Amino acid sequence: MPPLSEGRSERPQFRKSRSRRPGQGNTRRPLTAEAVPTTVPDHVESTVPEGPLPSFSELGLSEELVRALTSAGIAEPFPIQAATLPDALAGRDVLGRGQTGSGKTLAFGLALLSRLAGERAKPLKPRGLVLVPTRELAMQVEEALSPFARALGLWCRTVVGGTSFPRQIDALRRGVDLLIATPGRLSDHVRQGTADLSEVMFTALDEADQMADMGFMPQVRAILDLTPRDGQRLLFSATLDGDVDKLVRQYLHDPVVHSVAPPTGSVTTMEHHLLFVSAEDKQSVVTEVAAREGRTIMFVRTKHHVDRLAKKLRSVGVQAGALHGGKAQSARTRVLGQFREGTTPVLIATDVAARGIHVDDVSLVVHVDPPADPKDYLHRAGRTARAGQSGTVVTLVTHDQRRAVQGLTARAGIRPASTKVRPGDEDLIRITGAREPSGIPVAEPEVPVRARRGGGGGGPRRSGGQFRGGRFDRDRERGGGSGRPRRVAQH
């Protein structure tokens, strides 16, 4: 990643509306002591309001949004929403730390939609932007926010690596109020002249640490440089160090910092276990754990191992789905849908493919292959114990892996219980719910056959320059209709 220039500057202390020439980057004056510190604090005390949480109305949301939330069965805010919404609605830059499942999507989404209400986007000029690391996460953010956008007469669309670049252009030409995008594909549109970010006054970066881990920071900076320097920015991340810290210092002005989780990311409703197992027993233990009741995600390191393990489990009666970056987007979407619906209760995944998995009621995460570093451990573990639910995380550890895994969990701030297990052990059953599989092979769910649609699948070939696509952003995007909702009067 190219180093940042020493002459970095910051937005002025007081926001002023300033015109900007097309393509002009952010020229910011140096940070002062009153602005954000040179490094993000290693620990930020929880800013969850004490006592009963305020209602959405008390937080300042409009009647339209409150009614839409009630219709969606959302009666009260999560702590991260109660903490951040007042500042975000007031126009402050917000730096939020919270684990997956903490309610971050609505925390920034409701704020952006509220700020966007009452105006229309011009063709090719979105007014709000959400940057996310993966296409799956982009789709889930769109799914979560669309009902509330419709309640305000707004339109949100995804722009990710896609099956139809022309369809994305068509949506942008119709006017998109809130654009949800991965950095690589949005960079493609900027370079092609099909997306103009000069009127993006409200930007949210979700899972910023994951975007840094996946190598997207150059594209993210280039994108932010094309947005108005006096725009509002919200950044949410599980960790606030390294490249995320640099991004905060360069692009957020005097941000209000909110946190609802300790720096380690260990959730109190999450149990952690190291299961010591012999190399000879490991496959049998994996099979028995996979045969348990309930949603289970198993992590392995390679795409080949994902396919091999899923096939092995299906051969003994466990309906398992495979998710990795080598699969077409349609297959990935289908597997995630089956996992979410419960028809496929076990998901085998690699780290990269699983970064966009946001499915509730995952009661067990299994590190079949130990993660490479503490961040990967925490990101994997964050697939369970979401939204205040409980969950269990187990790591299968062979004799030669003990020292490395114990050091890794210590660096992650985790204190797991350690247990030696064998197939059929009572401790294995107690911790994971393991049981013998049926032994009757099950078929992989059938792929529905659909007529091929026109429109082409590829976007423009990526070339050099600051908008080169990210390493893992060679995604495909689902299409979608282009009907715009009827706008409603604002009160």
In short:
The chain has helices at residues 56-59, 63-71, 79-89, 104-116, 135-151, 165-174, 183-192, 208-213, 217-225, 242-251, 282-290, 303-315, 329-341, 351-354, 374-381, 402-411, 426-432, and strands at 94-97, 128-131, 156-159, 178-181, 202-205, 232-237, 256-259, 270-276, 295-299, 320-323, 346-349, 362-367, 391-397, 417-420. It is an alpha/beta fold and 491 residues long.
Name the descriptors.
491 residues, alpha/beta, disordered C terminus, Rossmann fold, 2 domains, seven-stranded parallel sheet, helicase, nucleotide-binding
What this model shows, in words?
The chain has 491 residues and is α/β, with parallel strands linked by helices. It has two domains: 56-259, 3-Layer(aba) Sandwich (Rossmann fold); 270-432, P-loop containing nucleotide triphosphate hydrolases (Rossmann fold), CATH 3.40.50. The protein has 17 helices and 14 strands. The chain has helices at residues 56-59, 63-71, 79-89, 104-116, 135-151, 165-174, 183-192, 208-213, 217-225, 242-251, 282-290, 303-315, 329-341, 351-354, 374-381, 402-411, 426-432; strands spanning 94-97, 128-131, 156-159, 178-181, 202-205, 232-237, 256-259, 270-276, 295-299, 320-323, 346-349, 362-367, 391-397, 417-420. It has a seven-stranded parallel β-sheet, sandwiched between helices. α15 (374-381) links the parallel β12 and β13 (391-397). Residues 85-258 form the Helicase ATP-binding domain. Residues 454-468 have a biased composition (Gly residues). Residues 54-82 form the DEAD-box RNA helicase Q domain. Residues 269-429 form the Helicase C-terminal domain.
